[in-house]
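Sample A.
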Amino acid sequence: MTAKSSPLFLGIDTGGTYTDAVLWSEAGGANGKVLAKAKALTTRHDLAVGISGAVDAVLQKAATDPAAIKLVSMSTTLATNALVEGQGGRVALVMIGFSEGDLARDGLKAALGTDPVVFCPGGHDVHGNAAKLDLSGLEAALAGLGASVSGFAVCAYFATRNPAHELSARNLIRGITGLPVTASHELSAKLGGPRRALTTLLNARLISMIDRLVAATEGFLAARGIAAPLMVVRGDGALVSAAFARQRPIETILSGPAASLVGARHMTGLDNAVVSDIGGTTTDVAVLDQGRPRLDPEGATVGGFRTMVEAVAMRTFGLGGDSEVTLEDGALNPRILLGPRRLVPLALAGMMHGEAVTVELERQIRAANPSRMDGRLAVRTGVPERLAAGLTGAEAKLYELIGSTPLAVDRLLTSNAQNATLNRLVSRGLVHVAGFTPSDAAHVLGKQANWDAATARLGAELFARKRDGRGQAIAATPEAISERVLTTLTRLSAEVILETAFAEDGLDGAATVAHALVQRAVDSHPGIARLSVALDRPVIGLGASAPLHYAGLPPLVGHDCVVPEDTDVANALGAVVGQVRVSAEARVSQPQEGLFRVASGESVRDFNDEAAAIAAAETDVRAIAAGRARDAGTDSAEIEIASEFRVSTVEGQRMFIEAHVVAVASGRPRIAV
């Protein structure tokens, strides 16, 4: 079958800086063939603009009929980046059967921030027996909350054993407010209420963001006459339908990195490797073992929060081409620091806004002395106004001053306190800050040329004027400071790769050891004790800037670094070569001797016989998994069931304690006929 007669697959990856697109055909060899690829800037105010730019370029390069595309699959780092940067909509958390003290567990209070929380009596015990539910306090609060939040997160005590109280609260909230509601039992069957509440809270925050992404993509596809199913990559590398992802956006955290792992394996054929994917905002590092990514059984950790989302065992670091460049405070010879916050590179801001940026930077250069605010500009992100609900008076006042044209921060802020206010607006996703980044450094040195190099050089010149502890300028020229920034990025990349390897090996103090080893490797005076380290497998470098930043990696990590030909679109390629995979779980407990309780999905049933209870659990999970597989986008799912029993032996007699039954359904996504 020729490439022309084969169905075509369109892969899209919406990253923090770029949106990538790739057109792929199953024909053309064992691994298929990339027919065309393209990039466009991610436009956060209207994601459809970036998507259409990348996809239209691919269609033009391939000279193909859009109607020939039979499947569209998308990965995204938007959810990951939002959690790393502390962004997301304002939501209300409803805790049923919990106390205020439970907020202190598992980072829930830190994640909640200033968002409202409502406590209600109720919940269940470990066997699913109900306490008295009282939702009167929630009902009274809904009138005020509905106008100030974008959604709700509901978590009830032991809801994984009986979700009835979460369902009651969900129905009440939807009936009164009409806003999206996430219930914790929909996301995880694991115990651990506060962490389940944290996962639910983050999911509710992400709904509007992922909803906008899916809506933008669907609208674009319809406009181009592409009548193909739309799939989204989950954090474990599996594919699910767009409708499925809209309800469970938390499962798309690490979506882009998971897709990159699938793409890395597909492009290189390497079964064992450390995969490091550098983007604009983050570097994501994971391990390939025997051709499959390692999964984190405890749940993905992103932005410092340990969730209950099963995802690739990946460590995400706030290190990328668009990372904020700052100086170490209080040092005679201050180090260059990168991240974790993403800035809009000045080269990009200059390309988009022209003189509005360069005039301000030139004014600051003419000043006799450097300022801490030099080279910084603020601009609105362009998100819908409703997402600005709930701003404080100070936040609203500052937000009004910021418009769609970048404004120099030294003109905007009149006090240090306002800097904290500006940072809160950035965290809400309402404002971008533009500043000097490694991408600007690459433009200064001629190693990157897609944006405005002249604006980047102005930013580098301003940064080079900053003072060290002796009052001297930290660099003589824009080129000198740019070299230091890029060297720092390569060194830190080696550190995060080694830190991930040490953590996978179960070593404590991974970050400290990695830093010390890399420092010795680059230091001309290694010290009395000779230290060296080498990975047992190569590094696969992914990302458009990987050829630049990873060229110096091998001597720092002690192994080769492979950068595939299509590394710049690894995520988009991985999005179209994956499979649908979903699961369903049931638990069988024995609340009293001779009574076996099955909790599966949203039902709880009792049986007088263990075998009958197990059989019912297996039947339930098979049906639930099959239904989820259809919803997730496959009509050809194969289902595997596994059961795990907890038993004890008392005086030679077997005593049943609990059984955990899991069904996993997997298959290729359905394509348009």
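Sample B.
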Amino acid sequence: MSMTGMRRAAVGLTALAVAAFGAVATSPEQADARPKPVDVTLLALNDLHGNLEPPSGSSGTIAGQAAGGVEYLATHLAELRAAAKKKNTITVAAGDLIGASPLLSAAFHDEPTIEALNMAGLDYASVGNHEFDEGAAELLRIQNGGCHPVDGCADGTPFRGADFTYLSANAFKTATGKPLLAPYAIHKVQGVKVGFIGMTLEGTPQIVSQQGVAGLTFADEADTANRYARELRRKGVQAIVVLLHEGGTQAATGGINDCVGMTGPIVDIANRMDPSIDVVVSGHTHQAYNCDINGKLVTSASSFGRLVTDIDLKIDRRSGDVISAAANNVVVTRDVAKDPRQTALIDRYKTVLGPVAGRQVGVTSQAITRSQETLFGTSLGESPLGNLIADAQLAATDDEEGAVAAFMNPGGVRADLDAGPVTYEEAFTVQPFANNLVTLDLTGAQLYCVLEQQFVTNRTLYPSATVGYVVDPNGTTGTVADPCAGTRVVRGSLTLGGTAVDTTATYRVTVNNFLAGGGDGFSALTGGTNQVTGQIDLDAFVAYLTAQSPVSAPTLDRIRTTAEVPAA
């Protein structure tokens, strides 16, 4: 069971530990007679997103060091196991191992990433929202193996599936009420049992396409964890670890092993979890932290395989309780030897992929990043790369469907573009989801509602260059039930092509099919009519890069505040 205050470092026996062991030894003979605790090491990662090769740009560094790449990750895991008692080491993950992946993995439906993790010795993983990108049936194939039903075994070899166990406690088949995958696993180490409960975030349906979660229902994270913790205790398991694909964010001043000003869903979830839960390995927010929340060790290893969380547990042999838990986020540096098996895997899939990946599709005159500018103290502003993608989507539909504006969701922009030549693989890494463009009719009133919904969802839609509007930081925010009630967007300020929007007029607007279906909480877009489905977003982006090269970063002047544009 959890012991408050014992999470950031291993500690000696306290009054709580005395209760677990019995009376404190009063002589060396009594001390020697007491069974020594079992040392268990957990090696944890999260949000790998199929990054087999070291990520580029800022995504490939952390704590001031170049980091990531499965060739180095596998070596670091092996070294950490060697430093601990190898038989007492369990390797775990907190979701989004696949999905939103670079071309080298995504072109093969992420089979290469699963093979890499098999070789790296992963034991258990929770599902994340991106594990559902291609639907429940595909997730089951990833777990169990078999050729893809459409593309077959693209590399010419059978796919045996994951050697590790995916856990999915809070994703239920709607028709039967049963979990899609095993909700938990029990792992024995030197006679003691360690239970692992795996979950994704309850809000998965809001951030995955509706096809991806069809036939599934998602339950509250804390309630689900508590339910299965009770079941594990009935089976004699007292050491309980939750692998949860949901997380939080610490203040910018915090380092990779800090917990400064922690905020986000994980705080409430951990506070509502049963005291019998000892450790929460979290993810989803791509942050690094090492926290004590409500007497539980709560960790996250950032993203893209740049960190491994080394967690040390001491478990009482008699009671099976966790006596102490301590963690350390370790940087996956690139100054170690590459794992030769991982190198061979990467080389094999590169050969199969062929020359398409390296084909140049454009040139950038400067680095174009996905980072958002600050808008009245929060990162809710525009993004250079996000704006560029919106421009590309409008260019792909202005003639064909008469679109006058386009909007791009921030979660769909996955990487930066470096200065210089842009390859097809780099463009794919920026936009890996293969969403279709959808052009639809919205009234001016609906457009205002869509923009107000940004402040309900805390997500900015990146606008095409034809769009301009003013935000009032002192305006009111609408509600989930009535986002249109908000007054953050100054009425009369919204223009399309420099002309003020008439709330009663109708406008053709382009978004991707994820947004058109209400993704990221933009339910107001589902009211669009006369929908026409167009080309894949990546194709539109590639065509724009080719046609407009050399491409520069767009000016961030499409969303302004009342401080910049005083009220008339």
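B remarks: Confidence is low (pLDDT under 50) at residues 1-26. Residues 91 and 122 are 5 Å apart (CA to CA).
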